[in-house]
Amino acid sequence: MRFFCYVLLCISAILTTSQANAQTLKVGVFDLDLMVQALPGYRTVDSLVQEYEADSLPRELQFLEKDYQRLDSTYKADSAFLGASAKTSGLLDKVAEDRRRVALNIVYWQQISQNKSNNKRGTLAQPLYEVVTNAYKRVLARKKYTLILKPQTYEAGFPIDNIFISMARELKLQSLPQELLYLGDDPDPAKQPAKAPTGAKPKTN
């Protein structure tokens, strides 16, 4: 982390010495996902995803388990009834393949269900991402940053602008989550959007 800050300082020095009238290195901190999660509307997305995880996904797993039991029973019954000739002639291949496919879905259900949940969240949050992306473009057009870092990639003490605050003003938000308020080099609460925290807290998966 200190090495990264050292690199930034070197870049700043190069820009300063190479061009007398060069623009000052302007660095900001921002993360699109965290900004979306700070919107009031994201709480609805989070609630709907939790309902999906609690209701729809368990039902899908139950369906898979019942389907496997059906296919397994069918395979065993047909195998016993038709005998060895059915196995060698491929009459049971389709049932065996379907049973294997469903079994794999059950074995890897945790990963599959996580992917389904992520896709559901992405679909529901898409309108929020569009709103934030458009506002972000307007802020960048005005501020003209040289470099933008994510919150976890810079070390406190390095001169940096908190773009979350500019975004909150652009989106007319009354507050930001506490963890987004005091980033960068402008900790003055009077300059922050309203009091915190009332925004949705980022969810970690």
Labels describing this entry:
three-stranded parallel beta sheet; 205 residues; elongated; mainly alpha
Structure write-up:
With 205 residues, the chain is mostly helical. The chain has one domain. Helix content is 65%, strand content 4%. The chain is built from 8 helices and 3 strands. The chain has helices at 2-18, 32-38, 42-82, 84-89, 93-107, 109-143, 163-170, 178-181; strands at residues 27-29, 147-149, 161-162. It has a 3-stranded parallel beta sheet with strand order 2-1-3. The longest helix has 41 residues, at 42-82. It is elongated. It starts with a helix and ends in a 24-residue tail after the last helix. Mean pLDDT is 80; it is low at 13-22 and 187-205.
Brief account:
With 205 residues, the protein is mainly alpha-helical.
Question: What's the structural blueprint in terms of helices and strands?
Answer:
Layout: H1 2-18, E1 27-29, H2 32-38, H3 42-82, H4 84-89, H5 93-107, H6 109-143, E2 147-149, E3 161-162, H7 163-170, H8 178-181
Parallel strand pairs: 1-2, 1-3
Low-pLDDT residue spans: 13-22, 187-205
Order of strands, widest sheet: 2-1-3
| Helical residues, percent | 55-70%
The radius of gyration computed from the alpha-carbon positions, rounded to a whole number of angstroms, is 27 Å
Topology order in helix (H) and strand (E) letters:
HEHHHHHEEHH
Largest sheet: 3 strands, parallel
Overall outline: elongated
Give the amount of beta strand, in percent.
Answer: under 5%
* Total tally of structural domains: 1
Mean pLDDT: 80
Q: How many E strands? A: 3
The N- to C-terminal Cα distance equals: 24 Å
Number of helices: 8
Structural class: mainly alpha
